[in-house]
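EI: anyone free to look at a 160-residue chain?
SC: sure, send it
EI:
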Amino acid sequence: MQPVLCFYGVVLTFREITDENRDAVCDVRVRPGQEKFVDSVEKSLRDAFSTPEAAPWYRAVYRGDVPVGFVMLSWNVVPRPGILGPYFLWRLLVGEEYQGRGFGREIVRMVVEMVRADGGRELLTSYQPGVGSPWPFYRGLGFVETGEVEEGEVVVRLFL
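SC: here you go
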């Protein structure tokens, strides 16, 4: 199933990362200063490769034929120390020039629909505290703090 979103006349899709689009997707960057809150696409791909036990599922986010973001989840994984789940939004990245347009919100909505369709009852993610952190974004989507901290990041939950 290929999630598609019509947003102000724009179609967002999740696409697999291939040899043909890898460089363009890895060129998607967040605003300066946000790098301390979200790792790059390139680092995310390395993390996915080196952590298969986290059941990584990742896709580029496209607006038409242009990569505008990246998303990575632990997909239906058995939780254990160091691995949150079963559904954990591991990375969400929206390119600098596409931020503030509702793309991040809609990407999360698309992820939520997929997790629900797979039988998930909650979506977890985490954030690094600090000025400029994504917590206000996640709180605005309905995420609540769980009281857990994992590797210095505050764990939050969205009940589905």
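EI: The mean pLDDT is 92.
SC: 👍
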